[in-house]
């Protein structure tokens, strides 16, 4: 019985410590406006979704990242080429994944990160761009 409760508690802790991703840009923008948070839009390539998913999971499973992202950002994950409404011209890139930081009025809060960032670079951007 103790093992069951220990596993259940571990699952709840892991589940609670995940980045809360949105897939709809417009709904995320409205949420950012209401909560006065910054949008963090991560654009991934359609053909690399498995590799990108593993990369993002590795990068963003760090507790410090998750806490910072959930506190200061509304996180949006968009797969390139999938029919979604998002400002394609503004978030144009040839490097995937790309991280864009926008305020609720769709203005850049800082320079995007194009390609795979290392952990230090991502944490600096999360601190600087919020």
Describe what you observe in this structure.
The protein has 130 residues and is an alpha/beta fold. Helix content is 45%, strand content 18%. The protein contains five helices and five strands. It has helices at residues 2-16, 25-35, 49-60, 63-72, 119-129, and strands at 21-22, 38-44, 73-79, 98-102, 113-114. It has a five-stranded mixed sheet. The longest helix is centred in the N-terminal third of the chain and has 15 residues, at 2-16. It is globular. The termini are far apart.
Explain the layout of strands and helices.
Layout: H1 2-16, E1 21-22, H2 25-35, E2 38-44, H3 49-60, H4 63-72, E3 73-79, E4 98-102, E5 113-114, H5 119-129
Parallel strand pairs: 1-3, 2-3
Antiparallel strand pairs: 2-4, 4-5
Q: What fraction of residues sit in β-strands?
A: 15-25%
Main sheet overview: 5 strands, mixed
Q: Would you list the SSEs in sequence order as H and E?
A: HEHEHHEEEH
Beginning-to-end CA distance, first to last residue: 44 Å
Q: What number is the mean pLDDT?
A: 77
Which segments are poorly predicted (pLDDT under 50) over 5 or more consecutive residues? Answer: 1-16
Strand order of the largest sheet: 1-3-2-4-5
Helix content: 40-55%
- Cα-based radius of gyration, to the nearest Å: 16 Å
Number of helices, counting only DSSP H or I runs of 4 residues or more = 5
The count of β-strands is 5
**Estimated structural class:** alpha/beta
Given the C-alpha coordinates, what overall shape results? globular
């Amino acid at each position: 019985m103790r093992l069951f409760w220990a596993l259940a508690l571990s699952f709840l802790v892991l589940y609670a410590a995940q980045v809360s991703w949105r897939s709809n840009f417009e709904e995320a923008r409205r949420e950012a406006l209401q909560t006065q948070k910054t949008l963090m839009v991560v654009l991934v390539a359609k053909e690399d979704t498995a590799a990108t998913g593993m990369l993002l999971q590795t990068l963003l499973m760090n507790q410090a990242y998750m806490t910072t992202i959930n506190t200061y950002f509304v996180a949006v994950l968009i797969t390139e080429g999938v029919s979604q409404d998002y400002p394609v011209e503004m978030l144009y890139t040839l490097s995937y994944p790309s991280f864009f930081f926008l305020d609720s009025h769709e203005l850049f809060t800082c320079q995007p990160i194009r390609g795979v960032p290392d952990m230090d670079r991502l944490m600096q951007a999360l601190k600087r761009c919020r």
